[in-house]
Amino acid sequence: MQTLLSRPLAGALAAAALTLAGAAAAAAPAAAAPAAAALEARASVQAGRLILDPTDRGYRGTLPVTVTNRGRASTSFSLKILEPVAGSFRDAGPDAPCLPYDELTDGRRTFDCSPSLYLRSGETKQAFLTFEVLTTVRSYPMRAGQGTIEATVAGQQSPAGTATFGTLFRSSKGKLRPARPYVQDAQAKASISAGDATMTRAETGRWFARVPVTVRWSGDAAHDNLWVGGVTLPNGVQLWTTEPDSGPADWLEHLAVPGKRFMPGEERSFTLVVSAPADRSAADVGGPATLEVGATFWPTYVLPEATPADNTVVIHLTAVE
């Protein structure tokens, strides 16, 4: 026997079916959200206070960072590190590659580091971060701003865990309190002096001269290296190398000053070798030359200079056939 439904009853049943279907569709994403959250990597990050101790070259200290995997799955964590003092971060261990971000936060750099932090669920490991501040050691303790550490996971936008840490400079007398604020220079304080030199031909016919140069660094602004460049040079003359060798010139034809980063008040003398092609005459390669010194700090290529007047020096090149 066939059962016939009235139009009102059929409409009511159809509406109920649509309501149930809509409820099921709405419930699907809601059910998926907790599942996705459960799979998201989570970690607890613990860092104490960074204590920078006096050394023969400024201050240096190591910060232990403890990471615990709070997620359900085994996960490999990286560390995103915002240094507390500009230019202070050195490394995250001997086997931990680190790359700087192309941006600054209040003049400070952020690094992405990959120490060995593959952790099973509930497992804990430590990483050790090294910091160094090249400033004059004081007889009183100092304090700097906070640094930040994030545990990150590839493919996950939000950090798995975050910690902040304070920074104290131990005084030359061994004290940590009362601490005064540490104020770092924001501009470079470099100067240069140089002597005249004689251009002579090598066996190949190419011209060379060895210029004695001394550079001085008077402040504690964050920097990666100092460099020398040629503002004006005789026809065909170019900066060739340094002795000791500091590597090839950069894209601005600057040569790095040999050696490490500078301490305040440090002077460094070296030889700047200049050269010119063999087809240039003595009249071409002889004459006045203006040299300059500057400083770099990634990603700001050339640091602003506090006293530009002492950043250049004029020398004379004498050519002898």
UniProtKB/TrEMBL annotation:
Keyword presence, Signal: yes
Keyword presence, Signal: yes
UniProt KW keywords: Signal
Signal peptide: 1-26
Protein name: DUF916 domain-containing protein
Biological source species: Micromonospora sonchi
